[in-house]
Amino acid sequence: MEGLNVSHEQLLAALRCNFNHEKFRNHQLEAIQATLSGKDSLLILPTGGGKSMTFQLPALAKGNCFTVVVGPLMALAKDQVDACLDLGIGARVWNSDTSEDVRKGILSELVSDEPELRLLYTTPESLRNPSLRGYLKEAYEAGTLLSFAIDEAHCVSEWGHEFRPAYLELSTLKTDFPKTPIAALTASCTSAVEASIVRQLRMQEPLLIKGGFNRPNIQYKVEYKELIGGGSEDEVVEHLVQFIQARQGRCGIIYARLRATCDWLCSALSASDIDVGVYHAGKDGQKRRQVQRDWCEGGLDIVVATIAFGMGIDRADVRWVVHWDVATSLEGYYQESGRAGRDGQPCESVVYVSADDLDTITQLEKANRAGTASEVTSFACQPGCKRKKILSYFGQKRGPCNIGSGPP
């Protein structure tokens, strides 16, 4: 699609009309203007930095066009569509759960001269659908396909070679839609992952827009399991129970690597009269959706989950995030801990670590991710400010330590 001439005043008017915001946050306007000018972009902003606005607003600022938003999770897509519909924004989701009647309606919208659809949320797997692909090509030829937004773009690098091969096929977007700009968005990535995203998506001289990585409201802490009751599992659980009880009524997420660990930990916490839900792919879809809904709406404050939970979910008052199992990479840790404190208020990130845990992530390390486990080990075990270690890892050499902010 040719670049669109939309003035700053028009964009501000669209922001106020559709989202009730008076001004853009840092880097939002730059990213929006890149898309409207037909330029590829890679946007790296921390969780809560307003990335969604950068792909939602362009199609609203210029009528008769739409953006395709590609994300990793079906539940996340539905949540974002519901949020758009609440604002009166024409949005739909196309995934494996979408009924045939709804699909027909979406396809009709894609080739309409005056589509009400502004945002189509889908997954890499769904983009393989021949009907959807064909209608998108028609929209491209008609000039109504504005852009592709690849949300959680680090998944292109981390998942494409492993259990989500459809991510590798996103490279064909530039083959089928060569003039349509791609906006790739993520909360964190190193320079190597940046290069991987650009290469995998075949982006053409993308504009790199990068915010700072410091989250000053998050207090980072590592707890060594061996120092808690000699490493006894029961003692470590009791330590976690006391941590939660001291923060009664405050929202939190507990991440564990294995589904079985999530179930066991949920049972152990429930036995201590803590109201907690559990979320992972092994649970029935309806139960997962209910837990997510209860948590998002405030009816449930604590969830034990595998790492996908919380991705893109807009609950701003998460006061703490606990990693029962140490993350397998610092990118992953930054992403997951960053789901706390989106409202900017004080919050905590606590990581439980043992020698066995560190051995495990070394064994899990993939060849194309060599060195990630040693970086995590360095973060967990070497003395010094944890915040500065995170900032240094992402190439931000200077930043406040701010370790004395106290618990929220």
Automatic annotation (TrEMBL):
Record domain Helicase ATP-binding: where: 32-207
Residues of the Helicase C-terminal domain: 236-384
Family matches, as SMART domains: DEXDc (SM00487), HELICc (SM00490)
Matching Gene3D superfamilies: P-loop containing nucleotide triphosphate hydrolases (3.40.50.300)
Highest taxon of source: Eukaryota
EC number: 5.6.2.4
Reaction(s) catalysed by this chain's protein: Couples ATP hydrolysis with the unwinding of duplex DNA by translocating in the 3'-5' direction
Keywords (A to Z) from UniProt: ATP-binding, Helicase, Hydrolase, Nucleotide-binding
Family: Belongs to the helicase family. RecQ subfamily.
Protein name: DNA 3'-5' helicase
Species of the source: Tetradesmus obliquus (Green alga)
